[in-house]
């Protein structure tokens, strides 16, 4: 029982520390951004600073009422990007990041909830710019993560992301490898990617 109480107290202290990172980092000069500041963009669609990954300050709706997601979570950016740049609305406009990938959908088949073609990691199809990359949850983030593929070469992809963490970059690079006819994004958490037809 003492061990459980100690673990509970340690978790509470960790949570308090985690939620105050933005304020402390700002005071120490590690971070120049305020919540809602523009930090990056792709094809005219902005990435906004969210601070700690758990920050949520309301829901963002498109002018026609379409649900873009919670401000400024990763899901909100990718859905806003697809809505503004690719003129795409998902039939199911809700769900956590990892829920964008449907394990029941085969490689290269239609993900009906998102009205996008789904590719597994690894896949017969090479990732492309504008693909939506989905990451599985972790012990620290059970909801997963989503980003947009912003650049593709023969051996790397670059992603643009919103809400990667207080001090993390909006851009990240992953190795890309083709082996036995399959393309693999080298991340043990990358489930696969979605693409507009």
Brief characterization of the structure:
The protein is of the alpha+beta class and 197 residues long. It has three helices and twelve strands, in the order ααββββαββββββββ.
Describe this entry's structure for a reader.
The model is unreliable at 9-29 (pLDDT under 50). The chain has a single domain (31-195), classed as endopeptidase domain like (from Nostoc punctiforme) (endopeptidase fold (from Nostoc punctiforme), Alpha-Beta Complex). It contains 3 helices and 12 strands. It is of the alpha+beta class and 197 residues long. The N and C termini lie far apart (55 Å). A hairpin with a 4-residue loop joins strand 5 (109-111) and strand 6 (116-120). It has helices at 2-19, 21-28, 74-84; strands at residues 38-42, 45-48, 59-61, 67-70, 109-111, 116-120, 132-135, 145-152, 156-160, 171-179, 182-185, 190-195. The chain is globular, with a radius of gyration of 18 Å.
